[in-house]
Amino acid sequence: MEQIIQTLILGIALGGVFALMGSGLSLVFGVMRIVNLAHPSLIIAGAYVTYWGFRLWGIDPLVMLPVAAVVLAGIGVLLYKLVFEREARSAKYSEMTVLLTFATAMIVEGALGFMFTNTQRVTSPGYATDAIFIGNVFIPMGQLYAGIVSLVIIGALAAFLKYSRFGNAIRATTQNRDAAELLGVNVNLVGIMSFAIGIGLAGAAGALVSFVFSFFPAKHWEWVAVLMSLVVLGGMGSILGTVLASFLLSIIAAFVGVWFGSTWSTMTFFLALFLILLVRPQGLFGEKPELA
């Protein structure tokens, strides 16, 4: 029984981190129809911003989190203006973004590898290796803090989207871009800001990843299928669906890792991606596409 509780705790703690990692990807697709394969590489970039803040000046990763978010949001604005804005109205935009973001991921990986080499790194604040013990069950402090911070950020994002005027504009653009524009929404501004927020969330996730996982520039390829499985299972563009899928798959993966070994744990996400595309490609909260 204790092993089941322990595994459940670890799955829930990591689920929060995965939820933040996937929420920015889901937001960007929902608003701009951008299938951002570069999202994991930008998470790694956020992890490096946090790592060097800690390594050079001893700044806590949680304090560096808003810095990493702002830096990556700025990079997001540049990326959008240089790469994605010009073809935003194209009927084949989503298909084009797969290739564009794949190329962007390779460029980001190459730049990070050139600057920092492919040495594995990890930010090591004191709480990263501490734990709270309740009997024989332990709660890793690093994962606990990361999970709580992730949920706070996602909650703030949900409140922003629901209650702010600009959040309503984002939701309107997500539901119907053309109708939103007819009603006076500046969809170009919404697109830029949504992309910046999405990439900023990648930076925030990177700050948490920096002390929860070890990382190096090519690490992002391991996370592409993981994040895509979360977003597809939850429903492309649904942040709530992504959060629920993150906890569900993280818990399942934790139990698979205990029962069958850590190698099979990652396979949980690949198998989930395959099955959901086969059985229900619109995901749990996505809308079924209409046939022409």
From TrEMBL:
Keyword Transport in annotation: yes
Compartments, as annotated in UniProt: Cell membrane
TM ranges: 6-30, 37-57, 63-84, 96-117, 137-161, 182-211, 223-249, 256-279
Membrane topology: Multi-pass membrane protein
InterPro entries membership: ABC_transp_permease, BCAA_transport_permease
Superkingdom, natural source: Bacteria
Keyword set, alphabetical order: Amino-acid transport, Cell membrane, Membrane, Transmembrane, Transmembrane helix, Transport
A Pfam family hit: BPD_transp_2
Keyword Transport belongs to the record: yes
Matching PANTHER family: AMINO ACID ABC TRANSPORTER PERMEASE PROTEIN (PTHR11795:SF445), BRANCHED-CHAIN AMINO ACID TRANSPORT SYSTEM PERMEASE PROTEIN LIVH (PTHR11795)
UniProt record similarity statement: Belongs to the binding-protein-dependent transport system permease family. LivHM subfamily.
Protein name per UniProt: Branched-chain amino acid ABC transporter permease
Organism (species): Pseudotabrizicola sediminis
